[in-house]
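Teaching note: in complex prediction, the entire set of molecules is handled at once rather than each chain in isolation. The prompt given to students was simply: 'Predict the structure of this complex.' The entities are:
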Amino acid sequence: MKNDTPYHILAGKNLRLLIQMNYGSQEAFAIDYGADLRTINRYINDGINKIPTVQELAEFFNTDFAFFFQNHDFSEDTK
Amino acid sequence: MYNLERIAKFTESVFDMYGMDKYNFFQAYDEATNQLFNTPLFHANDRDSVAHCLGRVSEMMGLETDVFINTDYNVAKMYWDRYPFFGLYQQVAFLDDCLHQKMRKDAPSIKQRLIHHLRSIDQYIPGTFHEGAEMKNLSFETREFISFPQFQTMAKSLLDMYRRAEQLFFICVREEPTAEEIREFNFLSHWMRLQDIFKPSAIVDYQYILQNKSVYMEEQYNSLTDYTKSRRLLELELWRFKEFSEDRKLAQNLLDILPGAKYYMNRFSMLALNYDCFFRWSDDQAPILEEIELMELRAYEDDSDLDHIPVSQIQSDPVMLYLPKTREELAKYQESSNRLKELCSPPSLGGLNCPSYIWNQYSNEYFLRLLRRMGR
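The expected output is the structure of the full assembly:
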């Protein structure tokens, strides 16, 4: 399937997916990850532009860098 | 007549023994250069000035003034004898020095691998690799583990110190502490640099508790982390020890007294597993700033007393990227790296539990506590 979503937006959507899979809320993730909740909201809504940020998140969630740029099933978070 | 020079020298040796912050005693801050500089302990040699200075030293070090006047080393080292942490951590300082000397920088190999890595990222983020361009000013940062077989003893002693400080804190708040308890609390709070969560410039020592006793009495929390945070404990970076991740229970106990530490653990883990690389591409284009961005830059320059940089000379940020270390580079710390990485991950994936802050700044409780301290 062709993926037309800009890469940084896709990374933000996949971060949301990982948070949903591992935490009860974005706030719980922000506290555990040690980031400001507003920063996490910005990543999710506006995307992630910086490569090192994606690399850090990939290490944290023990997933591949590539995971952030793949089109996963976002049906849950579009409800 | 006392020998002030001898007293000052002895006092400085006690500061050194405990690694106590010398600021405002043997060091002052030069605002013009933004640097600390050495100053004598006694600025005047009249009786009142000396007594005042020794009173401050005595309060902070949790030792009676006579200990300094009599240069009584046996009494001065009472906390050293009570907490093995101090003796053990002094050995770590030596290991740290050795580590800094042996850090190797094999730049050509890293550059080649970085090119390969950039190409692989380019398939997900086109434009990451600049074909035909050169990397300029490549530099990188990395960290290495340290191995200290007595880590457990040292860490347990640190926990003992923290728990004792916690016990004494509540005695100071809710009961009438003895003179000895006050001295020990003052020593521990100054050594740990226990800051008031709501007023980080203040060290929470006995005097500070007295000044804020009504607020503390009103709040019925039971943990020291609900009231204070310790920059000093964070700066110890206990996760850089190979042995930290070998004892999960101990690691969790340490994290429990260090809200926010998981972020620093993560940062260390990234730098232990990777090189954090910085460089510029030779074909780097000057950024096209929008009006608002230029206004922000000018405001920053004005606030910082900097000259305005001409628009034509504004450079884009350097490229930053993590380059994974090879198995050989991780060498004997491969297992430690993997274990620490797991401890840093979400609890659902085996990571440690980050203590939830009762002082989480998004909560109403945080706001109410802030207001309470402002007398509202």
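Point out the following to students. Residues 255 and 261 of chain B are 7 Å apart (CA to CA). Chain B touches chain A at residues 121, 124-125, 128, 260, 262-264, 266, 269-270, 273-274, 276, 320-322, 341-342, 344-349, 351, 354, 356-357, 360, 362 (CB under 8 Å).
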